[in-house]
Amino acid sequence: MNSLQSWPEPIIRVQSLSDSGLTFIPDQYVKPLADRPSLTEPPPPPAEINIPVIDLSQLFSPDRSIRSATARVISRACSEWGFFQVVNHGVSHELMKRIREVWREFFELPSEEKQAYANSPATYEGYGSRLGVEKGMKLDWSDYFFLHYLPESLRDQNKWPSLPLSCRELVAEYGNELVKLCGKLMKVFSVNLGLEEDYLGKAFGGEEVAACMRVNFYPKCPQPDLTLGLSSHSDPGGMTLLHSDDHVAGLQVRRGDDWVTVKPVPNAFIVNIGDQIQILSNATYKSVEHRVIVNSAKERLSLAFFYNPNGNILIEPASELVTEDSPALYPAMTFNKYRLFIRTKGPRGKSQVEALKSPH
Ligand code: OGA
Ligand code: NI
Fold it and tell me: Which residues form the Fe2OG dioxygenase domain (predicted)?
């Protein structure tokens, strides 16, 4: 049988573990020493370092010099950090608040309601508690809900929660707004890379672009120093727009040997480059490793919106960016094939995109 058809072990909901009031976390969640967060050490100096915060409204300023300065700031953030936050992005703050609330309510539903959406590794759609199908693997301290938004052919609202009542409608409205925002950013990235404005959009499949959403729920953890809410990974897809609670930090971004804890800005989206844009840009832009830490005082909710190439299209370095001096670093591969790695092995830093690099 295909190893991706079913989970290798019974699924335990992290939320129910957390609610049971245990004081020690089960061994399956205890990470090897090297992977544990160092919560007690002082943060590496300078403590104030943070990913760039960019005012997106300036991209549409009537002043040409402000527009191009903003594009340059985005370009630098893409190549130096692989991560930035955007404010004045055009998505209604009210909508952002409502969708956060509705997903919080979803996770507060009785477990039978949520179990109706229990997922399998065949598509990962639905209510899940692990990423990866290897028996005995260490697990992360989180539950999630994963759904397909685009292309239309993969969208099945019956697989989205029917409760709370406004959930499906809000997801549809939110997705619609975020697809528009992603489309704008894709144009900026294309031009910044020296490509035609619609290059990346076309490479992702044009109208057949894919998008999915993963709502992450990180319950309180009695021993946050021993585990992670989400292990180190780079996002396998194109680009991610993350919206999280602004009163609980958790996301950490790799910066050299350090981990920088992102300070959430209210109503901002955290934007990050995924492996497919690293590949298309022939590594001009890098997908950057990130992970999530948990804490004993507060649960945390985040909405990750993944804007991806259509799964059936071959993705390879843009020929415009390949020269004799900078040969293509990656072979062509569809995203459907590419994403099988993380779906099988779970989050493993940047090992997949690194391993793909063709030898020269
Ligand atoms: C993800 C992710 C970060 C967060 O879902 O891929 O990196 O803060 N989430 O939840
Ligand atoms: Ni991620």
Answer: 209-309
